């Protein structure tokens, strides 16, 4: 499979670019909701529009009413989301939760997917426990209780947790905290009693929760896949989410870079356009080179995911780590090259820096994934 | 003047006793927010009696500006004595009694370039906390290339009429007076700038606060709309420091001074704490992040040595005059990296923007704020230009 | 010409059979040293019968230059067929039958700019391994700024008299002919260079090998002392490629071609091996070095994806024409880093310079040799200039 | 203590600079011995001259006939050695071995020190086992045998091992390989039977050995300090050696940088001096800044060592790591900025690169010491 977009993908990219550039633009979405202190951190209207475009169900099988496309296509949408810093539940709902739900029973899929496809529902995933992503260790427990389970524990960094109609929760049904096996995924509806959200606004104006489960009673129906067999679904969900986050990160990097290169062509100091200064030229050229490389890694990882390659796990971590590093460089260079005005809230470049930071942390930062690459490479 | 060790020891004991008697316990607590800092000025209010008592005791002793001559409101301390005072204040964590751009910036300029009458008037006002100054340097079109500034003062015989706009004026909305770079000759880029002093209450001056990516800030935009500035404030007190059209010399002097201050030499000790603190809180460090922290510690601890060396050399005049640029460059880049790592160490908790647990997003806001370190007071790029030209003597730099 | 899958499959089977019949087992072993490479030319000797047999079989089949037209000594394969041949040769680890700057550099230039008669003569000689070429580009004073070259060819009517000096001429001491950039008009920098072909046996040509920091090298200095170069080698065969004074166009074309070759897309897979190999040999990795290796693997594996993407895009003409510069920049910088890490991983053993255990200091010599990667074929700095100018379209770059 | 040189130190720096610049110059020493394939890798004549200058005994107490100076002074000499790439046994003999010997008995000191001070003897230290520096783990064993010991094992990277009149060998007299205690240091004379050197030339033209001990019989007199109590002396020796190697490394960095900055002022391309190109200016300025910082760290570490501060161990590792990083940068930038001629054996810049590599590896590379800094800082 060549690593450039085929005609259909190129067309999708055009469509997504135009849609996000207009409807998802910074002024129209991010600043709009931020300046109103919106409790969701995103607009439901746009989510509905994305449903009309078919984006919400992009990864879902046609049998479930989705578009039946792959991670390359989801990545195309996410890159445009990243470029425009568009706040939306796409990554958590249409990529992460959707990835898990496709492994769910007919009942579960029938219960949750139509709302997602229609843009009426929003889903979140509850994985992390503690400040750093470490899904190898899951202490939240679900104990057998009658026909169902009793869920106890606490999850952190649940993005859009308080806005979600349903949370995909990874919990331990057997074994000890660091065991690979013994994990079960649950689809927990928002009205489950005993679930409590402490909502916090993050640096990028998105909303997340610390969510506690205090003996939450769940039906057996809430189980996604097999009891104790959730690790496989969790891993697949994480891979999808990491590649998706990386695709969005490439968009953030490109958005910051494009804005900065434009600025280099406009701003004058010492009687010259600052883009004429060779030191800045070389830094911009280096950044371009890094962004191109990161982008290739993301497309490759998405292709491997779509072809269910054994290398997908490795390349998902490569893509996530590389993008985190490169997008970090892009926003730092962006702010520095903008100089003083780059520090003001009025200019958009700082918003890229904020989003990059939150995205870098989501599902594992560059250090976590570099470490994973070493492990997967046998050292 | 030189001291025997005995003289200094005696001075230390006197100082210690004086501080004991005059520095209230509340003034020995760390500064928590801007309220805790006393800036002086026409509209100054004290947060509490302790702040007032401490300020007044220092003012009366000349300890708001201990190294300035007594006739200008200082205590006339010699450098070794001033060092003893600093050490003794640090020992009890005494707060600074008065913070002021007058002390840090205008004062040194006046001491170097001012007339006797200017010193008498302005330095005493500064020392006594009676006036709060702000600095009008940068303009929207003149950042790194400061000398291209456009704010213009038209000569009207006994006064100038000033029009233009400044940016990054810290506390312009709270200052009484401004020291301001104004173009007074359009024909000569360098020799056409005047270092002007005037009242912020003058008609035609307005300010607008700047919101930063890190949140609220003391920075303002400042606008001058036909502001009339008299050429003299009395016998021997011209409105400008130095000569008319030669304000660039004053500005350059102050920029060097500022870089020396910013470049400060702290950091090493503070830093090595990130890794240990993280280990305490997380139990087990991500191994790649640990390696990054380790490599950072190497750089930070080495930089702390350089800071010590730099200060030692400054004291005896051995430092290269352009060395502050190198210190500023390396120090600010390091500080940005430190905060990147603190964000990584803090993980998702550090992303929180206004939660109570994070003291209103302190980690994130500090991280964002440090991004300005390598911009304000001369960008890293300008610092590198200066090093290349003045230290390495590279051609055409 | 396009193929059905069936045609290609048939071609693959034929090729496989032909290789089976014609490629001796010895020619399926990895190349160990320069001796194992057959370069052709007037003074060529074969290392053994297998090398000779393999070369002659390929020559007769047109497989020394499989994609060149049959009339010039090639096999006239279409790109898909050529790919099949490459794949089938790689499958059995078949060595290249003939290595030659004629094939890599001069050939493409002649195919693009040569006269029909030049192609007939020179391409056939190259394809048949009858002539060994070297490249005369760089001069001591003209490295990155190649166009400033000074080697001068004085017009003497029916011949030029060439004087000057070239450097970095690979295998100049073993080559039969040279393709050489010679200034023929001092008035015009770009339009005053001629891409000239002449015999290295000409009177006045001398060469001197260059010793590198990594040891012996194929590089030479080459001196021209009143070398007489005829303007024509027969009907339709001028001594230059392209027009006189327009050699810069040819040179630029070839530089792009060269960067595309150098930038190659390997590396990812090979690389990830350093860490694992080190763990096998040391048992326990230094944790900070492990972290460095991990971060390198991320970059190397990502670059391998870019390499794949670049080749995919080149195939269908989607790559930006300046993209090879970016590939060369990133790829060579990465390769230098790879070898730095291999030195660190190897520790003191890797420092050995001529011990048997290290195969004559292979790790250290390779490490040093990679330092030239970002210099030869255009420095990293030149690559960055080109990216800034042609891709990012920055002003005045 | 201020971090600049006092008057005596400044005078010593002048003297050392002049001496090494003349007598120790690259053409006169490094290239001279290298081109003759010298088996020692250095010149005994220069060593004798260094003795006449007093350098050989610079760290030794005046009571032993030395100059009684400190590590700051030794560092001054080493920095000049580094700048001139002067091959000599100074670091191994006058810093490392001398540091151990000062802890030795009167007999031992009497036996070995006069030769060192006179420049007649050369000493080596045998610590590493394996390709990487890991002195925490010592497997070479010395077993009680009559009145003395029987030494068995193998040491690697013994710099100047084959030229040495005596080797300081760290061996285990009790405990298992990774124990902190149970180490004893021995002064092993070159004619000890059962000691076998496999000499190898290193990339920087210096000589080192793989040295095997096949039941080498040693007198009790050969013990330096206490039996089983060698870890303290070893640690002190390592600290001295690391700070010394760092001082030499700063010299290498400065030498490479100075040469490169000079070249930037001479070489023309595109009608300009290449030092006019801003991208190169910024890289040179960054390098200058790093070299200054590394230098300050070295002087500080040496002062802490001289004042027997508890922080000396930490700062020795900081200095070694920082210098390795910075000197590596200096030689890489040096070769790259020299362009093609930087790759030729004819130019000296490549020699700096080679020396830097060997020095970086000696007594622990930047990664080893960064890891140590983390450990000493409690993480």
Spell out the key features of this protein.
heterotetramer, A: 379 residues, alpha+beta, Butyryl-Coa Dehydrogenase, subunit A, domain 1, Butyryl-CoA Dehydrogenase, subunit A, domain 2, Butyryl-CoA Dehydrogenase, subunit A, domain 3, 3 domains, four-stranded mixed sheet, four-stranded antiparallel sheet, 11 helices, 10 strands, globular, B: 397 residues, 12 helices, 13% strand, oxidoreductase (chains B, C), AcylCo_DH-like_C (chains B, C), flavin adenine dinucleotide binding (chains B, C), flavoprotein (chains B, C), AcylCoA_DH/oxidase_NM_dom_sf (chains B, C)
Q: What would you say about this model in short?
A:
With 379 residues, chain A is α+β, with helices and mostly antiparallel strands. In chain A, 49% of the residues lie in helices and 16% in strands. In chain A, the strands form 3 sheets. A 4-stranded mixed beta sheet of chain A has the order 1-4-5-8. A 4-stranded antiparallel beta sheet of chain A has the order 2-3-7-6, with no helix packed on it.
What does this structure look like?
- Chains A, D: Residues 229-374 form the Acyl-CoA dehydrogenase/oxidase C-terminal domain.
- Chains A, D: Keywords: FAD, Flavoprotein, Oxidoreductase.
- The complex is a heterotetramer, with two copies of chain A (379 residues) and two copies of chain B (397 residues).
- Chain A has 379 residues and is an alpha+beta fold.
- Chain A is built from eleven helices and ten strands.
- In chain A, a hairpin with a 2-residue loop joins strand 9 and strand 10 (272-273).
- Chain A is globular.
- In chain B, 44% of the residues lie in helices and 13% in strands.
- Chain B has twelve helices and eight strands.
- In chain B, the strands form two sheets. Chain B has a four-stranded mixed β-sheet with strand order 1-4-5-8.
- The longest helix of chain B has 29 residues, at 287-315.
- Chain B is globular, with a radius of gyration of 23 Å.
- Chains A and B meet through strand 9, helix 9, helix 10 and helix 11 of A and helix 9, helix 10, helix 11 and helix 12 of B.
């Amino acid at each position: 499979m060549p690593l450039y977009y085929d005609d259909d993908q190129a067309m999708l990219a055009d469509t997504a670019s135009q849609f996000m550039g207009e409807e998802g633009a910074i002024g129209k979405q991010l600043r709009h909701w931020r300046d109103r202190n919106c409790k969701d951190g995103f607009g439901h209207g746009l989510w509905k529009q994305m449903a009309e475009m078919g984006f919400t169900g992009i990864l879902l099988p046609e049998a479930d009413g989705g578009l039946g496309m792959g991670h390359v296509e989801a990545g195309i949408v996410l890159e445009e989301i990243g470029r425009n810093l568009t706040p939306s539940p796409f990554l958590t709902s249409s990529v992460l939760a959707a990835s898990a739900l496709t492994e769910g029973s007919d009942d579960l899929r029938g219960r949750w997917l139509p709302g997602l496809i229609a843009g009426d529902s929003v889903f979140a995933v509850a994985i992390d426990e503690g400040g750093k992503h470490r899904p190898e260790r899951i202490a939240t427990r679900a104990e057998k209780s009658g026909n169902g389970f009793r869920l106890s524990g606490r999850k952190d960094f649940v993005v859009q947790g308080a806005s979600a109609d349903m949370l995909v929760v990874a919990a331990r049904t057997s074994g000890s905290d660091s065991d690979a096996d013994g994990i079960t995924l649950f689809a927990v509806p928002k009205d489950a009693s005993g679930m409590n959200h402490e909502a916090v606004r993050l640096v990028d104006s998105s909303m997340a929760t610390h969510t506690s489960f205090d003996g939450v009673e769940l039906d057996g129906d809430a189980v996604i896949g097999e009891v104790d067999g959730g690790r496989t679904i969790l891993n697949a969900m994480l891979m999808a989410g990491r590649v998706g986050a990386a695709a969005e990160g490439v968009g953030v990097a490109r958005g910051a870079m494009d804005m900065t290169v434009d600025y280099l062509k406009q701003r004058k100091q010492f009687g010259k356009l600052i883009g004429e200064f060779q030191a800045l030229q070389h830094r911009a050229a280096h950044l371009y080179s890094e962004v191109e490389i990161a982008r290739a890694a993301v497309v490759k990882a998405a292709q491997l995911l779509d072809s269910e390659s054994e290398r997908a796990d490795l390349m998902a971590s490569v893509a996530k780590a590389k993008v985190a590093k490169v997008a970090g460089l892009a926003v730092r260079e962006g702010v520095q090259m903008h100089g003083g005005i780059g520090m003001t809230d009025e200019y958009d470049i700082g918003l890229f820096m904020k989003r990059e930071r939150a995205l870098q942390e989501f599902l594992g930062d560059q250090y976590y994934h570099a470490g994973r690459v070493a492990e997967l490479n046998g050292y | 003047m030189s001291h025997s060790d005995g003289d200094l020891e005696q001075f230390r004991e006197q100082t210690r006793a004086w501080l004991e008697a005059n520095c209230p316990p509340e003034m020995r607590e760390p500064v928590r927010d801007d309220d805790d800092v006393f800036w002086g000025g026409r509209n100054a209010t004290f947060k509490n009696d302790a702040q007032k008592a401490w300020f007044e005791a220092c003012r009366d002793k000349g300890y708001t500006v201990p190294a300035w001559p007594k006739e200008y409101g200082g205590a006339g301390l010699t450098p070794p004595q001033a060092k003893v005072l600093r050490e003794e204040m640090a020992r009890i964590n005494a707060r600074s009694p008065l913070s002021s751009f007058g002390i840090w910036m205008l004062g040194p300029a006046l001491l170097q370039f001012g007339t006797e009458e200017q010193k008498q008037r302005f330095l005493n006002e500064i020392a006594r906390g009676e006036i709060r100054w702000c600095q009008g340097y940068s303009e929207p079109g003149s950042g790194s290339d400061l000398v291209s500034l456009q704010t213009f003062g038209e000569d009207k015989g006994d006064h100038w009429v000033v029009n233009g706009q400044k940016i990054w004026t810290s506390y312009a909305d709270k200052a009484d007076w401004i020291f301001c770079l104004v173009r007074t000759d359009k024909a000569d880029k360098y020799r056409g700038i005047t270092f002007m002093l005037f009242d912020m209450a003058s008609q035609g001056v307005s300010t607008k606060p700047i919101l930063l990516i890190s949140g609220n800030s003391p920075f303002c935009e400042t606008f001058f709309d036909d502001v009339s500035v008299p050429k003299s404030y009395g016998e021997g007190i011209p409105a400008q420091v130095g000569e008319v059209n030669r304000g660039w010399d004053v500005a350059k002097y102050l920029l060097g001074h500022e870089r020396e201050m910013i470049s400060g030499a702290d950091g090493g000790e503070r830093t090595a704490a990130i890794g240990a603190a993280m280990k305490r809180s997380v139990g087990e460090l991500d191994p790649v992040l640990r390696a990054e922290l380790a490599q950072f510690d190497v750089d930070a601890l080495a930089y702390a040595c350089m800071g010590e060396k730099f200060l030692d050399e400054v004291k005896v005049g051995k430092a290269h005059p352009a060395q502050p640029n190198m210190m500023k460059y390396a120090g600010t880049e390091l500080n940005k990296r430190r905060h990147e790592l603190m964000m990584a160490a803090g993980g998702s908790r550090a992303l929180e923007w206004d939660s109570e647990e994070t003291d209103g997003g302190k980690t994130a806001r500090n991280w964002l704020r440090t991004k300005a370190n390598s911009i304000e007071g001369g960008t890293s790029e300008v610092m590198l230009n200066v090093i290349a030209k003045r230290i390495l003597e590279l051609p055409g730099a």
